[in-house]
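Structure first, sequence second, as always.
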């Protein structure tokens, strides 16, 4: 007896697949599952051992390499999800590109932003650290000489 007590036939009967077609479909789905599981395990291993492999060094090349590895593996998993589970693999080329094209452009844009922002933050952090250290040196010199500068009054009339 059906749990939902509906009058619909079983899904297996509605799909109208032969047993051979069903086996082929299930085999394909299981192969995609195992590939995605393998990619996920590789991601976890790389993430767990990134420090030992030297991918978290402070130099730019290794950290960018680690980012590209993870982005690439994520895009690979997204490919299998879209083409297998969302059935885009069976569509015509025009349909595939009309759906995937904007996403691919967006992914390239995100990669460029990640790389550019990482470099921007690193450069400006170094400049800010230099500025702060110069200010600390100046304050230490003033404190040692006994000079204490009074803060300048606000120009807009605030007290």
């Amino acid at each position: 007896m059906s749990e939902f007590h509906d009058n619909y036939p079983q899904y297996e009967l509605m799909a109208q697949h032969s047993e051979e077609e069903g086996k082929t479909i299930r085999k394909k789905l299981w192969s995609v599952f195992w590939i995605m599981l393998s990619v996920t395990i590789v991601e976890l291993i790389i993430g767990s051992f990134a420090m030992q492999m030297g991918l978290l060094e402070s130099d730019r090349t290794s950290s960018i390499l680690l980012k590209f590895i993870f982005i690439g593996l994520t895009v690979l998993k997204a490919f299998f999800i879209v083409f297998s589970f969302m059935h885009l693999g069976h569509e015509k080329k025009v349909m595939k590109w009309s759906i995937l094209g904007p996403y691919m452009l967006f992914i390239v844009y995100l990669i460029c932003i990640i790389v550019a922002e990482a470099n921007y933050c690193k450069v400006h952090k170094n400049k800010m650290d230099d500025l702060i250290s110069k200010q600390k040196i100046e304050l230490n010199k003033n404190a040692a000489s006994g000079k204490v500068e009074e803060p300048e009054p606000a120009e807009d009339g605030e007290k």
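Margin note: Residues 1-90 form one domain.
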